[in-house]
Amino acid sequence: METAVLSGPVAAQFAAEGFAVLPDFYAPADVSALLHAVESSAGSGPNFRRSQEVFAIRELLKEIPSLWPLLETPALRELLAGLFPAGCQLVKAIYFDKPAGSNWLVAWHQDLMINVDQRADLPGFGPWTSKAEGVSVQPPVAVLENVATLRIHLDDCDATNGALKVVPGSHRHGVVPAAAIAGFTPDATVCAVPAGGMMLMKPLLLHASNRSTSNRPRRVMHLEFASAELPDGLAWREGRLL
Fold first, then answer.
1. Which residues cross the membrane (predicted)?
2. Looking at domain 8-201+228-241, which CATH architecture does it have?
């Protein structure tokens, strides 16, 4: 379903290459309001991770509910209608801050795990992990193919401050074995995104992030939406119907 936000060329790129960039998705005033909501939060529980190299908030909208009215603009509703004509739900929300000079990097990988409410013996689901924040599992590829990641950039982001590198089209190869990933990475490209811009990404897209080499921060809100319902006995841990 094509909309003014998800135009033909953008939709075609997203389908073929597994990512697309929508600049100026949020106005500067929107970005300021989002940052103010995060910076005003006094949260300090297990979903908050603070160190010299990273500041992250898991279950972002649970921790800072005031963010959703700021995020849910007409443009976002239109984008989600284009991505998921039959409707969707928010299934994960994370805030990342890669501070200036951080030496934090992320190796090449796909986003293969989803957050669920409990462990269940279901065919095609596994491996499982259990951490303090809850249970996660690798679902069948069909579930991941019905997830879209929206990365809202709150700062100008390029190769010097940790912009994502991606391998266009790698999402079409299913789960890529670790030993085969190096064969894909010569085709990588850097996704520069301006402040207020949105990067759309499919979870199966191979992606990575270098260390920051500048004094500029890289603050991002990472939202995952899904149209797929999980089998009986399993539910999205952060599921929020829209």
1. none
2. Sandwich (2.60)
